[in-house]
Amino acid sequence: MAFTWMMTWLTACMEKTVNWETTTSVPDTFFPAATRLVSGGAVLGGYIQGGDLGAIQDQRAAIYFWDGTSAAAVYNGPGWVVSLAADGAAVWAIAATLDPSGADSQYRALRSIDGGHSWADCGGVPGSSIAQVLSVGPDEAWALGMETLLRTTDAGQHWTPVTAGGARNSVSERLAKVGGRVVITGDGVRATADGGRTWLENGVDGSTVYAVDGGTVLARHEGALKLGVMESGGPRWRATFPESLRPFRLVVDGQTIRWLALSSGADVGDGIKLYESLDAGQTWTAWRLPAQAKAEAADLGQGGRAVFLDTRRRIHAPPVAPN
Amino acid sequence: MAAQSVSSPAAQTQRSSVNSGQEASSPALSGSSRSSSMQSTLGNEAIQSRIAEQGQGVGQDTDSTSGLAASTKVLPKPLPGMIGNVGYYQARNNDYLSRHGSPPPPDYYLNYGNKYARRFTTVLRPKLSADGQRWLDKAFVLLQTAMENRLVKDRAAYDALEMDNDAFRSFAYGTHPDAYLAGGLSGLGPVDLAKIASTPDLGDLLTLDGVSQVVETGARLVPQWGAQAYEGAKDLGGRALDSASEGIEAAWDWATDW
């Protein structure tokens, strides 16, 4: 309880706004669906909004590559980009257009095998709801939607439904690649190392898990937001944070732990929160990123890499090389 | 408990967003909001006619098939005809209630969207200049369009989003800066900006985040105007002021740690 109080106090009184370098911007009509660090910079997928009333028919899918200095348009197509994910040089995206009825979406896969510099359309993806993509390699990707989990192993030519315990929910679940396994976080953690034939399930002590990196988890446990380390007997909780936070990215880098979150509390809509511990979670510093208040607008990586897009579409990053 | 096991995956069914016309209409709309649309929509006729054009063929009252197994689940109903209407958020709330008994609808619909829509249009709009009114009309439409677009793009996911109050709040609040900016906030004079910034003081929607959102956006766009808007917002709470100031004078003393 004392620690919870302390973290709340820390957030309210000591949170500072980062002032990272701003090197360039993307068009102010660009709306991000995903921002992902890649080798040599970052890839931003989303759409360019045409017209002036925000009509969905006036949206064009767009992907930008940011090299640390400037951002270049590397893809332009119909509809909008739904999600984007990178695994080394293999970067996958899901794009969508409205179906003829105008009331649902039709999806297609896009793939880059050169780290996001150039893109190819891989064809349609079955399903009526897709919200996330996970890159596992140049030929393998997964897609998650409502009651939908798909996998391709032939560079997007075919997508096969995958079954796993529970019902898929793209709002409360996240796809991730952790230690060579494909992981679904949400109601605990589900992990597979054989393409989804078998799953290792861990309830993480009845938690709602937001993010995992290695053996470290960020989860809501008994109503409280906690960071824990998975051990044989279950999670060992190391820290408790303000309950209004909703984490979406966790990076463990030796003794350094960093994670990003949106707030649903009094400061909802006010940028993105960055929590950092340099001593394996014993002490924490809270920062505010003056970013668009969307998980789609920021990313963290190993080695202190980070990137975010602000409301004016300026790209910010810490003063370290993009690699 | 850490119960680890190798599971046999439960059967998972794919479904489409077909609902075969099972969606209930929004009862309150057909009787009240729609019939009073002349009073509840914004005054910009050009915007209204363009919205009407865009709404055609957007599945206003029909559902579609996706070619996959049909589901009996009733999904959110697009309401393109309500965009630009102050009753939009009430209509979305009603649509949710027609589909779910619990959990309650996202509190954004009535506690923020609906109240702000009415406060902005009935209280703020008459005080604004012609430019300010054009900004408000457009931003109002953009806010609702962003919500409607999110729904149309993936109705099943929107249904799940509605059932997660915190996530919905984050989504909805995240649309405000874009709507304000695309609406033309940067083209407004300091008087309009100050009036916009102080509007939450008119009611129980005085929230620091709402104030800082407006003030901060204005400050970043036009610093000198932002300074005047801060003056107008000072009485609304020191924390909002501090928060906005931090964005300008942020200390950067941890860069070397990265």
What does this 3D model show about the protein?
The complex is a heterodimer of chains A (323) and B (258). Chain A is mainly β and 323 residues long. In chain A, 4% of the residues lie in helices and 54% in strands. Chain A is built from one helix and 29 strands. In chain A, the strands form seven sheets. Chain A has a five-stranded mixed sheet. In chain A, strands 2-29-28-27 form a four-stranded antiparallel sheet, with no helix packed on it. Chain A has a four-stranded antiparallel sheet with strand order 3-4-5-6, with no helix packed on it. The longest helix of chain A has 13 residues, at 2-14. Mean pLDDT of chain A is 92; it is low at 1-13. In chain B, helix 6 (130-153) crosses helix 7, helix 6 packs across helix 9 (176-182) and helix 10 (190-198) runs antiparallel to helix 11 (208-221). By secondary structure, chain B is mostly helical. Chain B is elongated, with a radius of gyration of 21 Å. Chain B has two domains: 25-63 and 71-188, no CATH class; 189-247, no CATH class. Strand 18 (199-202) of chain A pairs antiparallel with strand 1 of chain B, so a sheet runs across the interface.
